[in-house]
Known about the structure:
This protein has 344 residues and is an alpha+beta fold. Helix content is 27%, strand content 28%. It has helices at residues 35-43, 61-72, 101-110, 143-152, 179-193, 210-222, 243-250, 297-306, 313-317, and strands spanning 2-7, 15-16, 20-22, 25-27, 48-53, 58-60, 77-79, 86-91, 95-99, 114-118, 124-125, 130-136, 140-142, 157-160, 166-173, 199-207, 228-232, 253-258, 269-273, 281-286. It has a 6-stranded mixed β-sheet, sandwiched between helices. A hairpin with a 2-residue loop joins strand 3 (20-22) and strand 4. It is elongated and about 90 Å long.
Amino acid sequence: MRFGPVPVAQAAGLIAAHSVRAGEAVVKKGRVIGPEDAARLAEAGVAEVIAVALEPGDVGEDAAAERLAAAVAGPGVAVEPPFTGRANLHASQGGLLVLDEGIIGAVNRIDEAVTLATLVPFKPVVPGEMVGTVKIIPYAVPGAVLDRALGVAAPAIRVAPYRLTRVAAISTLLPGLKASVVDKTLRTLDARLAPAGAGIVGEARVPHESGAVAHALRDAVERDGAELAVVFGASAIADRRDVIPAGIEAAGGIVDHLGMPVDPGNLLLLGRLRQATPQAVPVIGAPGCARSPKENGFDWVLQRLLAGLSVTRDDIVGFGVGGLLMEIVSRPQPRDGGESADDA
């Protein structure tokens, strides 16, 4: 691709690198300069224009953007028609945005002319939402550059649709915990589930005892057909031997991880039940901040599970980067030196 000043008499058929306005003559940036355009510019006293001439093997910006976008689009992602060197990718279904960051990084390292940007990984998206964009910086790229980009490209952007719809909510009770608090917690959970098309299929309020938790978990799966169970403790989980983890194990399940480098959300527990159904049923021991509608670590785990994605210990410990979220006004401020909150 050649770029630079060209006598206006020789500009016909080239691409205007910048918009030119002289009297009544107007040529917009990125447009092919026609013979009539060149004549009008000359009549208006324009001697030369900054223009682009494609060379053999060059691929125009729109064609290059469209081909690369198609190469990185995975299931649940649609490529929109390109314009001005840009091809946008949109979600064709609701779910979580799943990215292969290695491939995206490899594409961006090929050449400064080729760029690929996306939303943050695991963001909940709705149909029609833009999730990524390919932008070719110049008006064309050498075919060899595009070939190298396509060589490292693969479906790296997909939307994982929500799969789990039946959620059980179990609340443990202690003296002093008002029924209105539990009611509000359930309304908040219902609102979190709604975008995923999920809902509460079974609700139980039991004493804050491991045996009662175990019984409620078994009922949630065997009686209510729950695909996911959330346990809200009247008191925060402080140890793997505490009431909620002990209840999960008494129900035949296992505790996969306790604690999370996300604040608020530190005291989340993740486990699963292995009996009663062919597939393990995930169990979240919710941190106290899950009673609030504000974003916290509970959302990150809940959304992935609703989309049928696994959440491993490595996933959880990786949440630390970006895991310092906004304070919840209603809770104490442990980061400011105050007394540590019991509901993190």
